[in-house]
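Renewal narrative, Specific Aim 1. Our central claim is that a sequence can be written position by position from structural information alone. The example that follows is taken directly from our test logs and has not been curated for this report. It begins with the structure tokens describing the chain, in the order in which they were read.
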């Protein structure tokens, strides 16, 4: 018998129970072909620093000969650059193939059967997929659209590891370092503060690392550093935590180009301060415009807005769903999370450049005014 794509093969009986039970993560749509205004996955509308491109070219050399050789297993260039950037030791840094890789390492190392994980709901919908695949229970702690959650509920959850997305995604609101300190003081397990959007926020939690050995701060190059296509992230933590994560990761989890690209990006603070300031400026302008149209917009400290469409005086899940489709018909992609009552009447709108946002606002006004 020849095997072709048409053959039916029931593989499920061979699949590990946890993997069979867990539905896959659904990433935001990545449309192929041009003409789209893509405001759905919080990418950066600006190119990365020219120093990043230089570093990649330098690593490739004349003929790419360096690619014959395996990269540094520890991603040393990037660990050292991140350590310098944050004023910690390289032993307190682990690099990942995107911060998703780091999150997966954390789940594998610190959760499993009988070792539940916890997260805010709503927050990043990858966490429960990773814990499900690892046969770990995920405990969800409610957070309101105003950013209120019960720290005692986290403390009493019985979880071994708690993921706190700060600023929150998809809400965009930020929790103060004092609130995070309260969590760290009361909760007995590992606390991961996922700071994917922290470069757009007023404050971050890295200073708490000195006081709390159970704190892990994760960062990504996909948003502020305009390198989503390269897959680079890292985490800062106590050396004992890093050592544990190192045990779990792939031996060569970052390629050579990613290692030097990430290091070069951290070395160009001026360039990134410029594009982050511009994204924040546009974010605040778009927020004001939408509010003037009568929409509710959550206060954002990220590179996206959570906004509740109002059409002819009406809002709610049906209006948001319809508005999502209307934007898509006009080749504008945003993100809609209909399955959570906190998010069902909102759309999450990534901040593009000024021109993209002006086209977006014109399309919005055509429907609303
Ligand atoms: N954390 C949060 C909260 C995110 O929104 C994202 C992006 N989807 C990530 C982590 C992952 O980013 P990356 O794997 O691209 O570094």
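The sequence written for that structure reads:
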């Amino acid at each position: 018998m020849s095997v072709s794509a048409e053959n039916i093969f029931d593989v499920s009986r061979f699949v590990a129970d946890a993997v069979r039970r867990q539905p896959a993560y659904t990433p935001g749509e990545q449309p192929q072909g041009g003409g789209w205004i893509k405001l759905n996955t919080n990418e950066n509308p600006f190119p990365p620093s020219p120093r990043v491109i230089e570093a990649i070219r330098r690593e490739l050399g004349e003929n790419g000969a360096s690619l014959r050789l395996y990269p540094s297993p520890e991603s040393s260039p990037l660990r050292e650059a991140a350590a310098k950037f944050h004023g910690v030791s390289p032993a307190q840094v682990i690099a990942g193939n995107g911060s998703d890789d780091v999150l997966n390492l954390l789940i594998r190392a610190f959760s499993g059967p009988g070792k539940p994980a916890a997260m805010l709901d709503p927050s990043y919908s990858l966490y429960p997929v990773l814990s499900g695949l690892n046969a770990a229970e995920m405990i969800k702690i409610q957070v309101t659209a105003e950013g209120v959650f019960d720290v005692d509920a986290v403390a009493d959850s019985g979880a071994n590891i708690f993921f706190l997305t700060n600023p929150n995604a998809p809400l965009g609101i930020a929790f103060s370092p004092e609130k995070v300190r309260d969590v760290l003081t009361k909760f007995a397990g590992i606390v991961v503060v996922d700071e994917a959007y922290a470069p757009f926020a007023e404050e971050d939690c890295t200073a708490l690392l000195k006081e709390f050995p159970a704190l892990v701060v994760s960062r990504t190059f996909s948003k502020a550093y305009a390198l989503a296509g390269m897959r680079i992230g890292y985490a800062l933590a106590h050396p004992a935590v890093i050592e544990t994560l190192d045990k779990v990761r792939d031996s060569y989890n970052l390629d050579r180009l990613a290692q030097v690209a990430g290091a070069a990006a951290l070395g160009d603070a001026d360039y990134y301060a410029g594009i982050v300031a511009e994204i924040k400026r546009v974010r605040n302008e778009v927020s004001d415009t939408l509010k003037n149209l009568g929409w509710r917009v959550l206060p954002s400290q990220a590179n996206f807005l959570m906004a509740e469409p109002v059409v002819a005086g009406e809002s709610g899940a049906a209006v948001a769903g319809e508005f999502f489709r209307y934007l898509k018909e006009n080749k504008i992609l945003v993100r809609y999370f209909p399955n959570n009552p906190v998010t069902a009447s909102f759309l999450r709108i990534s901040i593009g450049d000024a021109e993209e946002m002006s086209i977006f606002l014109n399309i919005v006004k055509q429907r609303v005014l």
